[in-house]
Inverse folding.
C-alpha cells in the first residue's frame, strides 16, 4: 500500500519534472534572445528557480524595460511563493535546518503535489521534495540545452523566438483561467482581459516595462472590490 | 546585467523563505490571499499584451500576433507548454518568411 503510493508519487514527480524541463528549453532560448549570456541564464534557473519570474525578468530586459523594472516585475510575480510557503509550513512541519533548502524548492508544482498528497506529514514531505528536486534538476538541464541551442542562432527574430515569449506567458497564464469553478474562472478571465487592455493602452505613454507594473493595480483594485462583496464582515 | 540577475534571484529566494518564517495566522487575512492570487493573472496578461504589441514605446501589429493566435488555439486544444511555444515560434517565422507581415 505504502510502496505503491510512493511509486505513484515518484512517477508523478518525474513526469512533472520532464514537462517543466521541456519548457525550460524555451526559457533558455528566450533568455539568450533577450541578451543574457549562458551563465546569467543558468544562474537564474539555479538560484531564482521560479518560472514565471524568470520569464518576466528576461522578457522585460529584452524589451528594454531596464533593470529596476525587471526586478520589481519578477518580485511581484514571485510573491505567490510566499503564500505557498506560508500554507506549506504547517503541512510539512520541517525542522529549522531544512527550511532554507525547502524554501528554494517552493514553487507551483511542488506546492501542488504536497497538497494533493496530504494524507500524512511524511507523504506530503515526500511529494514536495520529490517534485521539487525532479523539477529543479530537469529545469536546469532544460535551461542549459535551450540556451546552448539559441546561442548557435544568428537572428532569433528569424525563428520567431520573439513570438515565443508572449506565447510562453499565455501558457503560464492559462491554467489560472480555466482550473477553478466557472464563477472563479470568469473573475480571473475578466482580470486578465482588463490587465492586458490597460498594459496595451499604456505602451505609448509609459517607458518600456512600466505598463506591466501598472497592470498590477488592476489586481489590487479587483481584490478590494471582490473582497468587500464576498466577505460581508470585512 | 549580473547585478540584476543576482538581486532578483536573492529577492525571489527571500520571498520563498518568508512564508516559513511568518506566523501562520498571516494567511487568514483574506485580502492578502486574494491579492497574491490575482497578481500573477494581471502581470502575466499584461506581459502577453506588451510582448505581442510593443516595440520599445510604440504599438506594432506584426507577425507576433499570428504566433499568439496560434498559441491560443493550441491551448484551447490542451497542447502542452513546449508545443504551444514551439507552434507560436514556427508560425511567426513562417509568416515572416512568406513576407505577409514583418
Amino acid at each position: 500500500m505504502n510502496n505503491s503510493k510512493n511509486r505513484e508519487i515518484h512517477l508523478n514527480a518525474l513526469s512533472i519534472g520532464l514537462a517543466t524541463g521541456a519548457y525550460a528549453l524555451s526559457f533558455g532560448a528566450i533568455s539568450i534572445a533577450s541578451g543574457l549570456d549562458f551563465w546569467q541564464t543558468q544562474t537564474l534557473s539555479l538560484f531564482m528557480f521560479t518560472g514565471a519570474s524568470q520569464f518576466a525578468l528576461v522578457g522585460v530586459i529584452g524589451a528594454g524595460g531596464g533593470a529596476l523594472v525587471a526586478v520589481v516585475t519578477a518580485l511581484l510575480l514571485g510573491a505567490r511563493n510566499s503564500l505557498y510557503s506560508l500554507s506549506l509550513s504547517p503541512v510539512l512541519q520541517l525542522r529549522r535546518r531544512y527550511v532554507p533548502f525547502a524554501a528554494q524548492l517552493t514553487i507551483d508544482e511542488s506546492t501542488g503535489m504536497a497538497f494533493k498528497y496530504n494524507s500524512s506529514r511524511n507523504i506530503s514531505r515526500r511529494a514536495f521534495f520529490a517534485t521539487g528536486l525532479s523539477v529543479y534538476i530537469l529545469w536546469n538541464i532544460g535551461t542549459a540545452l535551450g540556451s546552448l541551442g539559441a546561442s548557435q542562432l544568428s537572428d532569433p527574430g528569424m525563428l520567431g523566438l520573439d513570438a515565443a515569449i508572449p506565447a510562453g506567458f499565455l501558457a503560464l497564464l492559462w491554467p489560472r483561467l480555466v482550473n477553478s469553478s466557472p464563477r472563479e474562472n470568469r473573475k480571473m478571465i475578466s482580470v486578465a482581459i482588463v490587465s492586458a487592455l490597460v498594459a496595451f493602452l499604456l505602451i505609448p505613454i509609459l517607458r518600456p516595462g512600466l505598463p506591466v507594473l501598472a497592470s498590477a493595480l488592476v489586481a489590487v483594485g479587483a481584490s478590494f472590490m471582490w473582497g468587500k462583496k464576498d466577505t460581508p464582515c470585512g | 546585467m549580473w547585478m540584476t540577475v543576482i538581486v532578483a534571484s536573492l529577492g525571489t529566494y527571500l520571498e520563498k523563505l518568508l512564508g516559513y518564517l511568518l506566523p501562520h495566522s498571516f494567511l487568514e487575512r483574506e485580502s492578502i490571499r486574494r491579492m497574491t492570487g490575482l497578481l500573477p493573472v494581471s502581470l502575466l496578461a499584461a506581459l502577453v499584451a506588451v510582448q505581442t504589441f510593443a516595440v520599445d514605446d510604440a504599438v506594432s501589429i506584426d507577425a507576433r500576433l499570428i504566433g499568439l493566435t496560434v498559441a491560443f488555439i493550441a491551448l484551447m486544444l490542451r497542447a502542452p507548454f513546449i508545443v504551444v511555444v514551439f507552434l507560436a515560434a514556427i508560425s511567426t517565422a513562417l509568416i515572416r518568411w512568406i513576407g505577409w507581415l514583418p
Summary: The longest helix of chain A spans residues 2-33. Chain A touches chain B through 102 residues (CB under 8 Å). DSSP finds ten helices and no strands in chain A. The mean pLDDT of chain A is 89.
